[in-house]
Amino acid sequence: MYQAEQKLRNKITLLTFICSLLVIWIHTYNLEMYGITADSQGIAKIAYLTENYWKRLTDIAVPLFFFVSGFLFFRTYELKDTWNKYRSRFKSILIPYVCWCTIYYLYFVLITNVPVIKSLMNRTEATPLSFLTWLRWIGPDEYYTLWFLQNLIVYILLCPVFYILLKDRKKVPVGAIVLIAGILNVYFKWIPLPGGMIEYAAGAWIAINHKEAALYRNKYLSVAGWIYTVYLLVTGFRWYGLVSELLLFVTLWFAFDVFSLQKEFPWWMKITFFTYVAHDILLEAIEKVFFILGGNKPVLALASYILIPVLVFGLLVGIAKFLKHFLPHTWSILTGAR
Fold it and tell me: Residue 70 in contact with residue 201, Cβ under 8 Å?
């Protein structure tokens, strides 16, 4: 059982590590910045095709984060555990969320109020330094990359509701019916739902009703998983929706069984949370410097799209190593003791 649990944890680490890299690429998309469109020619056309293909792949990252979050939360959850879950997530989610909202808020106060920096960032509206503005940045005006955490906090608060609705009964699969109704709701657009809710609910449903299935291994399922994944990649995710997305998440889980997942992964593959919340400060600054120094050239658009995410992740690893070694308490607060 220990080896099976270790493989499960390593599989989660591998999936979330890949997703954290894809999130950086999501925010590196730069066609508008460089004025590249579908009608562009030459290198610009290559940049357009490359970035739009890769964008379809990167778009799976955040939904997969929600799916994994739902699975991990409810894998060890019963109604009697609600208060303990709230207390643990207060430390691991809410406090880091407030910290990173504050960091991004102060960052924008700086770059929009210092004239020299403001002129480089092309921002006309200054962010005021005030308590009420700070509160809005924690609430309705959260920094755009942190919406995932804000929604996740809401879903955590609603965990008893998720559990009651998604738990299958002995004679009636209530949870499956609710999940299917939610999927149909997305397709037919009956009621608008917050982003990531269905993916989170799908992960939760598996954890509540079929948690042992996550430990199951089958070589035929692994092969089928790779066939489906390659099919989506070859077709450029042309026929892709919520159902095919959820199917991809499940098939990826079994596909990854072809890898050796018994040994501990290196520490830098486990800084997923830090990568997600911290990358955009570095990314925005580096992209701007790259654009100012290189100019509006299509070849630089493609080069920056390929190289900058790698550079940003390398810098994040260095910063993480510094914080873990010299400022471990700060690191613990910023990452929720991860």
Answer: yes
